[in-house]
Amino acid sequence: MQPVSSRSTKIEAAVPLGIGQVELVRNFWSEPIDTLGSAHEHRLELALLPRSTVDRGCFPDDWGPDRFEPIGELFFLPADHRLHAQSDCRQQNSIVCSFDPEAVSRWFDDLRWTDRRLQGSLDIANSIIRNLLFRIREEICSPGFASETIVELIAAQIAIELSRYLTGIDDGRKIHGLAAWRMRLIDERLSDDGAPPSLTELAKLCSLSVRHLTRAFRVSRGRSIGNYIAEHRVERAKRLLATEMPIKCVAYATGFSAPSNFAAAFLRVTGETPRQYRQRASRKNVDAPVIARGARNAH
Hints:
The chain is α+β, with helices and mostly antiparallel strands and about 300 residues long. About 50% of the residues lie in helices and about 20% in strands. Helix 7 crosses helix 8 (about 210-220). About 30% of the residues are buried.
């Protein structure tokens, strides 16, 4: 089976390691993803926003061609295991750690890739690993003294934590976090237009108490559900700011009680005010109409 969607990849940063490599990657697909492939190295990926609501994967050599399981935003592909991945996503930003199997053999060679471990690798609910990946991204984006050494050490810790996590799956240890289907319900609700949901609404949607939801969410995503909701509101605000809608109206449309509260939240998440973002986005797209006219004339 061959991929039916073509992909272009932009490597924003890459740091070679003694045990592999870390990359910050942007991927773009021409069609919804439907690919079958494998890698010669172990590959850990944290997929950032924007997210798809339909991500699933199959290990056909182990499960047969028809069994698909949900893929979470943090997932692991063991070396030389073919994965058939499907998604309606067209764009994805990711933090990727690739590990040389020989370099990490002392931590991974004793692992048997059982059914439960393969399924667990597609949706890793571990806040330690997630936070370490974000720490690597911070170090790459804002390097300081001995950054390469720090990244190397963090990557080694990630490999060890990952081995512990995968070993624990078949040992029967409980891994506390939200199930993938609950995360998808939350993401689908957050993608709706209108006012953002309350914690009570999301808890009811997931058939959990508010306390259980907030604690399990932090384990699964490595940050509070409140911050996660705020990020989604800002992403929607960005889309509205790309239109001619007045900033005041954008504030109310995204559920803020006042434009000043909206500006403060937007600045906290993006590092710039809504007006600054709109001006920068407008400058970036200023040549688009000219290009479009040229394309029409060419036809």
